[in-house]
Amino acid sequence: MQELLPPSIWLSVPVLALLGLCIGSFLNVVIHRLPLMLERGWKLDSADMLGLAPDSAALKGVVIEPPISLSKPRSRCPSCGHAIAWYENIPVVSWLVLRGRCSACKASISARYPFIELLTAVLFAAVGWQLGAQPVALLWCGFMATLVALSGIDWDTTLLPDNLTLPLLWAGLIAATLGWTIPLSTSIWGATAGYLSLWSVYWLFKLTTGKEGMGQGDFKLLAALGAWLGWQMILPIVLAASVIGAVVGIGLKVSGGLREGRYVPFGPFLAGAGMVVMLAGAPRVMDWMGWA
Fold first, then answer.
1. SS in 3 state form for the chain?
2. pTM for this one?
């Protein structure tokens, strides 16, 4: 079997791109459902602390939604409840065939679904192109997929769930320990520098203005990026994320896309900068920064 399917085939760029399409379809589910699952868990915990039964008719205004997971119930149209058939759930293709509309009620289907699928496919292909047909490429594909999910969730909810940031952090440290990525000391100091840098900015801003300038999930995300990419990449990531975030925020403000009292989440830009740094490679980034 190994002779029939050598690594150069099953870890080739086209195969990784197809894998990215499939994983991207799953990431759409994660982005939509994980916040709902967390919210339901918080409400159940609140009801338990209040000594209220979850199935009580009135939970003093605490409404408990039906159980939901990443696999159940089946995906349905939010407008008419039509159950999505398997042939209506083929990445990108089904959206194009259906012309971006539900087959039952013709309600519009967001273009973000195929966008996430295509984005994940491109990122997986880019990883394969950079690293070649070796097993560690799958590890970095997992890194990319997690960042895509975190970006989508943070953009929608301004939440970076520990369910994703902490496993990403630990995976980076473990991969370094096993010798799969960067030296362990570089990974540990990267995680430390990533967390403490934004933690310091957070408290400086809060003590100065009395307001919170960012969520604490951003600390953990940058710590995770540091664990994967090393302490040398923390500054380039923060600089790139800050510049891109400022440009997008100003653009949304000018265009009216940013409602009063809302702010642009920083997580998607941290994640995007981390992706760019990984694909560019540390030597090239250090050369750009004038550190080479």
1. CCCCCCHHHHCCHHHHHHHHHHHHHHHHHHHHHHHHHHHHHHHHHHHHHCCCCCCCCCCCCCCCCCCCCCCCCCCECCCCCCECCHHHCCCCHHHHHCCCECCCCCCECCCHHHHHHHHHHHHHHHHHHHHCCCCHHHHHHHHHHHHHHHHHHHHHHCCCCHHHHHHHHHHHHHHHHCCCCCCHHHHHHHHHHHHHHHHHHHHHHHHHHCCCCCCCHHHHHHHHHHHHHCHHHHHHHHHHHHHHHHHHHHHHHHHCCCCCCCCCCCHHHHHHHHHHHHHHCHHHHHHHCCCC
2. 0.89
